[in-house]
Write a structure and sequence with these properties.
- By secondary structure, the protein is α+β, with helices and mostly antiparallel strands.
- The chain contains six helices and six strands; from the N terminus they run ααβββαβααββα.
- The protein is about 40% helix and about 25% strand.
- It has a six-stranded antiparallel β-sheet with strand order 3-2-1-6-5-4, sandwiched between helices.
- α2 runs antiparallel to α6.
């Protein structure tokens, strides 16, 4: 493993308990109804779901080929936080928007995490009612930073 890819490796190797700790810490400052963590696989041009708070509907291990989507252009390729607060924004971004809507999930916040100069994962929060704010995006980054620092110290 190259030193500049250490964070991506730690995220992909994190235990289920460690991921639950991250999800719980995020939930304490930014309430959500669904949290998933997607790992970007640049070699195979896809994203893999490394963690989910809803294993029945969005199980860990799921794979999506969406590197050519508008969502991926913003979040994966340009490492920009993504917000969706309307049905049209959800439909434009997510091919599974009907499934999300059926679960009552109508608002999204996707926070990219960079390592080695490119996005290595995306922290994805969805909820039913209230739209996410930019401040909540910063809070997710802050919590992730604390969590990842602890993971790096354990190495």
């Amino acid at each position: 493993m190259r030193p500049d890819q250490r964070l991506a490796h730690i995220i992909s190797e994190a235990s289920r308990d460690s991921m639950r700790t991250l999800a719980s810490a995020i939930s304490a400052v930014v309430p959500y109804d669904l949290f998933t963590l997607l790992i970007v696989d640049w070699n195979d041009n896809l994203v893999r779901r490394a963690y989910s708070t809803d294993e029945q509907n969005y199980p860990s291990g799921g794979v999506k080929r969406l590197m050519d989507s508008l969502w991926a252009d913003q979040v994966i390729h340009h490492s920009q936080v993504f917000f969706a607060a309307t049905p049209d924004q959800m439909a434009e971004a997510f091919s599974d928007h009907a499934d999300l809507s059926a679960l009552g999930l109508h608002k999204a916040l996707n926070v990219p995490i960079r390592d080695a100069g490119k996005t290595c994962c995306s922290l994805n929060l969805l909820r039913r009612d209230e739209a996410f704010s930019a401040n909540e995006g910063y809070e997710v980054l802050r919590v992730f930073g604390r969590w990842s620092s602890k993971q790096l110290q354990r190495q």
